[in-house]
UniProtKB/TrEMBL annotation:
The keyword Cell membrane does not apply. It comes from Azospirillum isscasi. This is Glycosyltransferase family 61 protein. It is an enzyme of class 2 (transferase). The lineage of its organism: Bacteria, Pseudomonadati, Pseudomonadota, Alphaproteobacteria, Rhodospirillales. Its EC number is 2.4.-.-. One of its GO terms (molecular function) is glycosyltransferase activity. The keyword Transferase applies. Keywords: Glycoprotein, Glycosyltransferase, Transferase.
């Protein structure tokens, strides 16, 4: 046992006892969507722990959100297409505002299993902004109990560095890291320029951790001023004066447009911006057959796309900068719906995006992303193969006639 504080949960613990780090500011103009945890109770608990958290700066203000309906949804199941359209209309009506994002400093904090806690009088209180309605199905409702049962804990010494936690429930997935986590490096602008920053992140696997390390380095232009520190998810780690940026998204149907704009600006600054050329690239975003959710008639799809000048890429084999560059240079993208297609955030606002997915998987994440970027959103839903109880994992067949019709309408044939 280290000399870290002895942690416990409050007597009579209620899982709803969570600490919103700045509820009054974050949700001042809406964007609070929780039917289980009342906003007044979050305000009351924060008031009872006065001084535990300090707001440093507002990163992005609250914002209204509007989304055009997709340009085209097609598939063999007309009832499913109508269901998606009805769902999208509902999302537009109900999820019409996104909350503000702020940078806070937590006087005494703890990190466990990729969740931040406020430590108040020795009590571990989960940060609400990491356990919202959309996050709890992944992390569960008893994070404070789980963390307090850890037999050992440790503290880390800042040694002159500022500690900034970067993470969310979806950090292990490239697409969620790109959209949910990476834009929060804006927080580094509000930490003294001469102060080195240690980006604290839970370790989630060698491949994604390498990408995340490259990403956080973008937060400062001076080399060596940002270094990553990966924490084992099973460790309970105490940190004093921890910086934390609240979410810039609400999975799967809200992404802060200003946060996405910041992501693009910082990548353009660090990697360079391409000039707008008439001969922009056309990408076919594929994945190997070793993955679930691949195209069963892949050869036929590749053949027709090649006729229209599409080049096949496999983004999982590219570095972050290479992925960004490829999509940044693309005017048209056709690809299998999934994390790699989140890179379409780097495509221009007049880009044409076509997602290929199994029928029955009505994921709205990519529709919302295209809307926030002003891009044309299209999706084709093919006949799934295998166990449709896990339809998002099913491989599927693409309707070649529908694909050709879309290409003829949208994509000029190369000379």
């Amino acid at each position: 046992m280290s000399d870290a504080p002895t942690s416990h949960v409050a007597d009579g613990h209620d899982w709803r006892a969570m600490f919103s780090v700045a509820a009054e500011q974050i949700y001042r103009d809406g964007g609070f969507y929780d039917g289980e945890v009342p906003l007044p109770s979050l305000l009351d608990l924060a008031g009872a722990c006065n001084g535990a958290v300090q707001v440093v700066a507002e990163l992005f203000p609250p914002s209204p959100v509007t989304r055009p309906m997709p340009d085209l949804l097609a598939g063999s199941d007309e009832a499913f297409i109508r269901l998606i359209q009805d769902n999208y209309r509902h999302f537009n009506d109900f999820f019409s505002k996104i909350a503000a994002s702020v940078l806070v400093r937590i006087r005494q904090a703890a990190i466990y299993d990729n969740v931040v806690f406020v430590v108040h009088n020795g009590t571990l209180i989960p940060v609400y902004e990491m356990l919202r309605t959309v996050d709890r199905p992944v992390k569960g409702r008893e994070m404070a109990v789980r963390a307090s049962r850890k037999g050992e804990s440790r503290s880390i010494d800042p040694d002159g560095n500022a500690f900034l936690f970067i993470g969310s429930v979806g950090s292990s997935n490239y697409g969620h890291w790109l959209i949910d986590d990476l834009p929060t490096i804006k927080a580094m602008e509000f930490i003294a320029e001469e102060t080195p920053i240690t980006a604290l992140m839970s370790s989630l696997g060698d491949r994604i951790d390498a990408v995340r390390a490259d990403g956080v380095a973008l937060g400062r232009s001076q080399p060596g001023m940002v270094k990553p520190m990966f924490l084992p998810v099973e460790d309970l780690v105490f940190v004093d004066n921890l910086y934390y940026a609240t979410p810039v998204s609400y999975h799967p149907i809200l992404k802060h447009p200003q946060a996405l704009a910041h992501l693009l600006a910082i990548c353009n600054e660090r990697f360079g911006a391409s000039s707008l050329r008439e001969d922009r690239r056309r990408l076919f975003v594929n994945r190997s057959t070793s993955h679930p959710r691949h195209i069963t008639n892949n050869d036929a799809v590749k053949f027709i796309l090649a006729e229209y000048g599409f080049e096949e890429i496999f983004p999982e084999g590219l570095s972050f900068s290479q992925q960004r560059q490829a999509f940044h240079e693309a005017s048209h993208v056709v690809g299998i719906m999934g994390a790699a297609m989140t890179n379409t955030v780097f495509c221009p606002p007049d880009g044409h995006i076509l997602h290929l997915a199994p029928n029955g998987w009505g994921e709205p994440f990519y529709w919302d992303l295209a809307a926030m970027r002003g891009q044309s959103y299209n999706a084709f839903f093919g006949v799934p193969q295998g166990n449709i109880d896990q339809v998002h994992q099913c491989s599927f067949e693409v309707n070649i006639d529908q694909l050709r019709a879309w290409l003829e309408r949208v994509v000029p044939k190369p000379a």
